[in-house]
Write a structure and sequence with these properties.
Blueprint: E1 4-10, E2 28-34, E3 37-43, H1 54-57, H2 59-67, E4 72-80, E5 90-99, H3 115-120, E6 125-133, H4 141-149, E7 154-156, H5 160-168, E8 173-182, H6 193-217
């Protein structure tokens, strides 16, 4: 909604492009202008748990790199393993742990910014380690305890394959998580997807501000 859109292309119209199957991922590539810069935005991403392989999950990153993008900004929704972080907070990913059991580089032939702006805009931005799991089921109490032992700050089911591919392409990259639920193994509650989407929506203005201000200075 913040982009001056010049062109939208449905994923279904792009050769070899997967189609988003998650209900709240719209599935289109958007080209336009944001903060005075030309941007290409994937509205809707792909996950291993949808049945795609790691190449398909990261195909959009390679496509945008082929179109000439110079920097990659990634967002996701994640669960807060660090219990000092709360629903609706944002977290800049400083490092990651890949527990998805695959790599987008494992095939034959495969050869930190934002924090200053957060302070200027008075937006609380945690820093932490993001662990990516396969999903689609959420974690058990024992798995949450394991993630705490691994010093994970947030857990999700995306982003790590895209970051790995960006690194292979020498594409500067930053990623931010919206923490949409709190993963306390001693006090687990049934997950309400509507609440998660609502929390993500409440945090969205701060994330948009961060991304717009970062894009200005790129």
């Amino acid at each position: 909604n913040e982009i001056s859109i010049e062109k939208e292309i449905s994923y279904s119209e792009i050769p070899n492009f997967p189609e988003a199957t998650v209900e709240f991922h719209s599935g289109k590539l958007i080209y336009g202008e944001l903060s005075g810069k030309k941007v290409v935005v994937m509205s809707g991403r792909f996950h291993l748990y949808e049945g795609y392989n790691a190449w398909e999950v990261t195909y959009g990153i390679r496509t945008m790199h082929g179109l000439g993008i110079k920097n990659l900004l990634i967002s996701n929704a994640a669960g807060a393993i660090n219990l000092d972080y709360k629903k609706g907070d944002l977290m800049l990913i400083e490092d990651h742990i890949n527990l998805q059991g695959s790599s987008p580089l494992a095939f034959n032939g495969a050869n930190n910014f934002g924090n200053i702006i957060a302070q200027e805009q008075k937006i609380q931005l945690h820093k932490g380690v993001y662990t990516s799991v396969l999903g689609p089921q959420l974690e058990t109490r024992a798995e949450y305890r394991m993630l705490q032992i691994l010093e994970t700050d947030a857990v999700g089911m995306s982003t790590v394959p895209e970051v790995i591919v960006a690194k292979q392409l020498n594409l500067p990259c930053a990623a931010i998580s919206v923490l949409t639920d709190e993963c306390d193994p001693e006090n687990l509650q049934p997950v309400d997807i509507a609440e998660i989407i609502a929390i993500a929506g409440e945090a969205e203005p701060n994330m948009i501000t961060l991304f717009k201000e970062v894009i200005k200075v790129l």
